[in-house]
Design a protein that fits this description.
Helix content: 10-25%
Structural class: alpha/beta
CATH class of the largest domain: Alpha Beta
CATH architecture of the largest domain: 3-Layer(bba) Sandwich
CATH superfamily of the largest domain: FAD/NAD(P)-binding domain
Number of helices: 8
Strand content: 25-35%
Radius of gyration: 23 Å
Oligomer: single chain
Distance between the termini: 31 Å
CATH topology of the largest domain: FAD/NAD(P)-binding domain
Largest sheet: 7 strands, mixed
Bound molecules: flavin-adenine dinucleotide
Number of domains: 2
Number of strands: 24
Strand order of the largest sheet: 16-22-17-18-19-20-21
Length: 434
C-alpha cells in the first residue's frame, strides 16, 4: 500500500501560476502540496531573459517567488514527480504520484555539484536552447530549486566518478521510482503550456534549417546566464547583422491545429527585438506580422517605443523559409504593403514566434475534459473562469489557455480564492453535521 500524505490543498505545476496559487493558499494557513514534473520549480518564466512590458530581469523576479514557496512552512514541494491520476474522494481529491528516479538520494544531496564537475560526459543542454553542453549528472541551472542533482541515464557511461567524489554518498545507481498518494480537500491545476511543435510546419523547415531558431531559444541567447553571454548565430558563431521575426509561426494556423491567437507572441517578439537592439546596436531587426496584438496595460506604448527605436515592422505573412547564401535564411512572403505581392528577403538569423499549446492533457488521468483548443475546459468561462468540471478542482494560468505572466498571476490568485472558499464551505458543513 503506497504511503498517504494529507494536505488541505494540492497544486499541480510549479510555474508562476502554480507558485502564486500555492503562496496565496499557504499565507492563509492552509497546508499545500505542490507537485511538479520537472526537476526544478519556476516553469517557463525562470527560463526567460527579461519580461515585457517592464523589462524586469525574469530570473530576478521569479527566484524570490520560488524561494518563498520553497521556504514557506505551509508548502511542501514534490519535484520530478509524475501525476498518475487525480480523483474525487469523499469531500476531497486523491492524487496518485510517482517520484521519478534522479539516481541521487534527495535527502543526502547537498547540491555541491562535485558530481557534475567530475562527470566526463557532455551532452546538449536543452535548458540553454541546445546551444551549449551539460554533464550526464547535473543540476538543471544555477538558481534551480531544489539544488538536487539528477542523472541522465540515457547518456551516463556508468564510469562511477560521480559516486566516488560525492561527499555524502548520495549517488544511487539502483534507485527505484516511489509511488505515493496525496489526499487534499481541493486542488489547483497550473500545468501551463508548451510551444507549438516546429516539426509540424514543413514550410518553415521543420527545425532543420540552420539559423532558424525559436523564440524560447532566443530567450536563452539574450539571458544574462545564456550559452554564449552574447547573441551569436548558432551555425558559425557570427554576430548577426540582420535578424527577422516571423509572427504567427505557430498560431492562427489551422494547418498546425492551432487556429487561435496565442496572445503573447507579438509582445515577446517586440521585447526581444528591443533587447537585441541593445545587444547588437548596428543590427537590422524586422518583424513580419499579420496584426500586432498589444492588448495589455502599457503594451501599445511598448509597441510604439519599439517602432521609435528603429525596429522595422513588415505587414505580410511568411509562406515559406529556405536556406540562403552563406548561412543566411531566405523568407518568401506575401506583402500587404505597397500594393502587395509575393516577395522575398534574406536575413542572417530568423526567429520563429511559436504559439502556445496545452502543457498537459488530463485525458486518462482525471475526469476533466479539454476545450476545442485542447486547454483545460472551464465551466463558467465568463463569470468564474477558474472552475473546472470537477468539484473542488480549479485551474490557473496558461493551463486554461494562452496567457501572459500578469494574467497568469491574477488568475492564480482567483483560483486560490475559489479553493479557499471551497475549503471554508467544507469546514462549515463539517461544523453543521457536528
Ligand atoms: C518565448 C516566450 C517569451 C515569453 N515572454 C514573456 C514576457 O516577457 N512577459 C510575459 O508576461 N509573458 C511572457 N511569456 C508567457 C509566459 O511564459 C507565461 O505567461 C507563463 O509562463 C505562464 O505561467 P504558467 O505557470 O501558467 O505556465 P508554465 O510556465 O508553463 O508552468 C507550468 C508548470 O507546470 C508543470 N507541469 C506541466 N504538466 C504537469 C504535470 N502533469 N504534473 C506536474 N507538473 C506539470 C511544468 O513543468 C511547469 O513547471 C513568454 C512565453 C514565451 C513562449
Amino acid at each position: 500500500m503506497p504511503k498517504i500524505l494529507k494536505f488541505d490543498a494540492l497544486v499541480i505545476g510549479a510555474g508562476i501560476a502554480g507558485l502564486q496559487a500555492a503562496l496565496d493558499l499557504a499565507d492563509q494557513d492552509f497546508k499545500v502540496a505542490i507537485v511538479e514534473k520537472d526537476a526544478t520549480i519556476g516553469g517557463k518564466m525562470i527560463r526567460l531573459s527579461k519580461v515585457f512590458p517592464t523589462l524586469d530581469c525574469a530570473s530576478c523576479i521569479t527566484t524570490p517567488k520560488m524561494a518563498a514557496a520553497a521556504h514557506h512552512e505551509n508548502i511542501t514541494l514534490f519535484t520530478y514527480c509524475d501525476l498518475q491520476s487525480l480523483d474525487r474522494n469523499g469531500n476531497g481529491v486523491t492524487a496518485a504520484v510517482r517520484q521519478k528516479t534522479r539516481f541521487v538520494d534527495e535527502e543526502k544531496c547537498i547540491g555541491c555539484r562535485q558530481c557534475e564537475y567530475q562527470c566526463p560526459v557532455y551532452v546538449s543542454d536543452p535548458e540553454q536552447g541546445g546551444f551549449s553542453g551539460r554533464k550526464a549528472i547535473y543540476i538543471p541551472f544555477s538558481n534551480a530549486i531544489p539544488q538536487i542533482a539528477l542523472m541522465d541515464v540515457e547518456n551516463c557511461t556508468l564510469c562511477g566518478k560521480c559516486a566516488r567524489v560525492c561527499p555524502t554518498q548520495a549517488v544511487n545507481f539502483f534507485q527505484e521510482p516511489q509511488d505515493f498518494l496525496i489526499e487534499a480537500q481541493t486542488a489547483v491545476l497550473a500545468t501551463g503550456f508548451e510551444v507549438t511543435p516546429l516539426e509540424n510546419k514543413q514550410q518553415y523547415g521543420e527545425g532543420k534549417i540552420p539559423n532558424v531558431i525559436t523564440a524560447l531559444q532566443m530567450e536563452r541567447l539574450l539571458a544574462p546566464h545564456g550559452p554564449y553571454n552574447r547573441v551569436l548565430r548558432p551555425s558559425d558563431g557570427m554576430e548577426p547583422d540582420s535578424i527577422a521575426y516571423i509572427q504567427c509561426a505557430g498560431s492562427r494556423d489551422k494547418s498546425m491545429g492551432v487556429p487561435y491567437c496565442s496572445r503573447v507572441c507579438c509582445m515577446y517578439a517586440i521585447k526581444q527585438a528591443m533587447l537585441l537592439s541593445g545587444a547588437l546596436p548596428l543590427a537590422d531587426i524586422t518583424i513580419y506580422y499579420m496584426d500586432i496584438r498589444a492588448f495589455g496595460k502599457g503594451y501599445e506604448q511598448f509597441f510604439q517605443n519599439a517602432k521609435a527605436m528603429g525596429i522595422e515592422f513588415v505587414k505580410g505573412k511568411v509562406a515559406t523559409i529556405s536556406e540562403g547564401e552563406n548561412g543566411g535564411v531566405r523568407l518568401h512572403y506575401e506583402s500587404q504593403e505597397d500594393g502587395g505581392g509575393v516577395t522575398s528577403a534574406e536575413h542572417d538569423l530568423v526567429v520563429l514566434s511559436l504559439g502556445m499549446v496545452a502543457g498537459w492533457n488530463p485525458d486518462g488521468h482525471c475526469r476533466i475534459s479539454t476545450g476545442s483548443d485542447a486547454f483545460i475546459k472551464t465551466v463558467k468561462p465568463k463569470i468564474a473562469p477558474t472552475l473546472t468540471e470537477m468539484e473542488g478542482v480549479f485551474v490557473a494560468g496558461a493551463a486554461a489557455g494562452p496567457k501572459d505572466i500578469v494574467d497568469s498571476i491574477v488568475e492564480a490568485g482567483a483560483a486560490a480564492m475559489e479553493a479557499s472558499k471551497y475549503l471554508a464551505s467544507l469546514n462549515r458543513s463539517v461544523k453543521a453535521v457536528a
